[in-house]
Specification:
alpha/beta; TIM Barrel; four-stranded antiparallel β-sheet; 33% helix; binds zinc ion
C-alpha cells in the first residue's frame, strides 16, 4: 500500500498512488504500518518516586516532568495521549503542556487534558492525608455537594479541560480510602456528569468497585477508568449502554497477578498499604479481567503511566492485555480506532483519506507477536516525522 501525506493529513491511499514529483518517498517495507497509538490514561506530571510528596513540587517542576514524559511517549509511537489527572494542585500545568505542544514549543503527542481529578475531601484525589496533620494546603479540585461540584467542573472547563475526570471510588495508591468505597452520592455524580455534559464534555470516573461504577453508569459517564473490579452483570450493563472501559491492566491486573512476587513489589517501590489492598482484591481483579476478555465491552487503551515509571514503554500494555485474554486485534483497536471514537476524535486512530497523518511503523506483525508494538521505529505525527528515516529516496 502507498499513503500520500499532504499538509499533515492523509490525502490518498491505495496500491499505487499518484504523487507530486517533489514528494519525499519513504519505504517502510518489512514493517507493519498503523495509525499512531493513543494512550487514553496517563499522568504526565506524576512519577512514582514523587507520589507521596506531590504537594511539595512546584508547578515548574511538574511542567518539566511533563516535557520529559511527552518526549518519551512520542518516541514510543504514542501520537495522542489524554492526561486524566493534573498533579499540579494549584494551577493547570497539563493545559499549559497541551498548549506548548499545539504551538510547537515542545515536542510531544497531541495532549488532551482532563484537568484535575475532581474528588471529595478524603477521597482518591485529596492529597492531604499524605501530609502532616498541621499542613492543610488549598487544593483546587476538591468538591463536596452539588454546588461545589458544579463550580469545580465549570472552572476546569474554563481553563481548557477537554474531559472531566472524577474520583468515583477509592483507590489503591491513595492511603486513606479503599477501592470499593464510593465517596460521591448518586445525586452528586449525576450533577457532576450533567454539568460536564452541558458544557459539551464527556466525563468518566476513576472507579474500581461495582457500586461506584454503577452510579457512574446511571449518571451517564462516557467511560469508566480502570473498572477492574466490575462484576459480570455490570460489564453487561456497560456493553448495553456502549460505555467504554479503560482497564489500565499493566498498572492494575499485573499487580494483582504478581501479588506474591516479592521481587516485583520491591522494584515497584510502593508503600506497604498498596500491596495490602491488592492482596485483598486480587481475586476480584483477576475474575473481572477474565470476564472483560470474553465480553463485548468497548475497550480503550490506557496505561496509567506516571503511577509507574515512564522508563517502561507504555506499549507493554498491549502484551498485558493479550496475557489477560484480550485478542491482539482488539488490543490494537483499543489504542487506535476505539480510542479515537471514545475521545470523539474521528480524525484520529484510523488510516484513511482525510484523517490526520499520525502514522507509526514496527518491524514485524503485531497480530503474531504483540510485543513488536514495543519496537516502533518510525513515528509521524501530523505529517511530521519524529523518529526514523526509512529507506533512501526512490527515483
Ligand atoms: Zn490514573
Amino acid at each position: 500500500m502507498e499513503i500520500l501525506v499532504v499538509e499533515g493529513k492523509i490525502a490518498a491511499m491505495g496500491k499505487i498512488v499518484e504523487h507530486p514529483a517533489n514528494a519525499r518517498v519513504l519505504d517502510l517495507g518489512g514493517h507493519t504500518v498503523m495509525p499512531g497509538f493513543i494512550d487514553t490514561h496517563v499522568h504526565v506530571t506524576l512519577r512514582p518516586q514523587f507520589e507521596d510528596m506531590v504537594f511539595n513540587l512546584s508547578p515548574a517542576f511538574k511542567a518539566l516532568l511533563g516535557v520529559e514524559a511527552l518526549g518519551i511517549l512520542l518516541n514510543n509511537g504514542f501520537t495522542t495521549v489524554r492526561d486524566v489527572a493534573d498533579m499540579d494542585m494549584h494551577g493547570y500545568t497539563t493545559m499549559d503542556l497541551a498548549r506548548a505542544v499545539e504551538h510547537g514549543i515542545i515536542s510531544g503527542p497531541r495532549l488532551i487534558p482532563a484537568g484535575h481529578l475532581i474528588s471529595t475531601r478524603g477521597g482518591h484525589g485529596d492529597g492531604t492525608p499524605l501530609l502532616a496533620a498541621d499542613n492543610q494546603p488549598w487544593q483546587n479540585s476538591l468538591a463536596d455537594g452539588v454546588d461545589e461540584i458544579r463550580k469545580v467542573v465549570r472552572q476546569e472547563a474554563s481553563r481548557g479541560a477537554q474531559w472531566i475526570k472524577f474520583g468515583g471510588t477509592g483507590g489503591f495508591s491513595s492511603p486513606a480510602d479503599d477501592p470499593a468505597q464510593v465517596p460521591y452520592s448518586q445525586e452528586e455524580m449525576s450533577v457532576l456528569v450533567g454539568t460536564a455534559r452541558d458544557l459539551g464534555l464527556a466525563a468518566s470516573p476513576h472507579a474500581y468497585g461495582d457500586e461506584g461504577i454503577r452510579r457512574a453508569l446511571v449518571a451517564g459517564a462516557r467511560a469508566i477508568e480502570h473498572g477492574n473490579m466490575a462484576s459480570s452483570d455490570t460489564l453487561r450493563q456497560m456493553e448495553q449502554k456502549g460505555v467504554y472501559i479503560v482497564p489500565t491492566q499493566l498498572a492494575v491486573v499485573r499487580q494483582a497477578r504478581l501479588i506474591d512476587d516479592d521481587a516485583f513489589w520491591k522494584d515497584a517501590g510502593k508503600p506497604a498499604y498498596v500491596r495490602a489492598k491488592y492482596r485483598k482484591y486480587s481475586k476480584a481483579i483477576l475474575d473481572s479481567a477474565k470476564n472483560l476478555a470474553t465480553s463485548n465491552v468497548k475497550i480503550a487503551f490506557g496505561t496509567d503511566l506516571g503511577t509507574y515509571s515512564f522508563a517502561q514503554n507504555g506499549a507493554g500494555e498491549f502484551k498485558e492485555m493479550v496475557v489477560n485474554g484480550i485478542a491482539p486485534i482488539r488490543a490494537l483497536r483499543a489504542a487506535t480506532s476505539v480510542a479515537g471514537e471514545m475521545l470523539n476524535r474521528g480524525d484520529l486512530g484510523v488510516l484513511a483519506v482525510g484523517k490526520a497523518a499520525d502514522i507509526v511503523a514496527m518491524p514485524g506483525d503485531p497480530l503474531r507477536d504483540i510485543t513488536v508494538t514495543e519496537k516502533v521505529d518510525f513515528v509521524m505525527k501530523g505529517g511530521v516525522i519524529h523518529k526514523g528515516n526509512p529507506g533512501a529516496p526512490k527515483p
